[in-house]
What does this fold into?
Amino acid sequence: MRLASIVHNGEEKLGLRIDDSYVLVEHLNREFSMGWPLDMLMLLLSGRLEELNAWFRDIGKNQIIEKGLDPILEKSAQCSPLYRYPGKIWGIGLNYVAHAEDLSAKAPTGIPGSFMKPATAIIGPGDTIRVPKQSHETTAEAELGVVIGKTCKNVPQENWLDVIAGFTTIIDMTAVDILQQNTRYLTLSKSFDTFFSFGPELVTPDEVDEVMTLKVATWINGEKHAENTVSNMTFPPDFLVAFHSEVMTLEPGDIISTGTPGGVQIHQGDVVECRIEGFKTLINPVHDEKQGEAP
It folds into this structure.
């Protein structure tokens, strides 16, 4: 199942993808006398994602198609962030050895190079990434995102799929020149507004045949800048979920952004993409605040 937050009549509403269209969950509730939560985060917090997915896969998809419920074509749908207020956002630094080598940095060993980001950094598909006035070297980094679906602690690595809601595409940003001044500025360099693009779709685990074979790529202005396969991560997703659950209780809606195959410096007018095989592409334009207000 693939879910998105769709802007409809000025509101962000939960939509379920059917082939090349979305159907709003509120329309499902009305037509089938259901009571599914109407936004993404509430669905995760309710613990009913698996129930919705089971209904959809069993009979729901066919019933929706038969009813022809007010589809919103994918190509005309305006997607927002999956949701805006996760409890925690974890980022993982230098998780591909090749990326660390590109930066002449030593990849972490033993434990991942984890950092946290604020919810205020979140933007969605098509929203503008803003290079802040304080930075003259900001990079954009495509990443695979893991969304937690259940409250959990001390998750065995082999059971990690039992506690996740699914996967998504992410573009993370770093004010590299600020970070280079002092490694203690990592949180600051990662936390500017618009520095975390999130969406457009949540892809449930049953839609992904093998996570480790997924290819993650950073694109800029229509050209591929960097690409790598999840299997080449130092700390793969199963380890990251288990490890962070040992540090703290993970809760529905928490996000782990698993690291980038390579970041690219962004400038005024650029267009950045996160492309992951089998996922809807995440695309964001860039505005440099040193050039004045965005149009």
Summary: The mean pLDDT is 94.
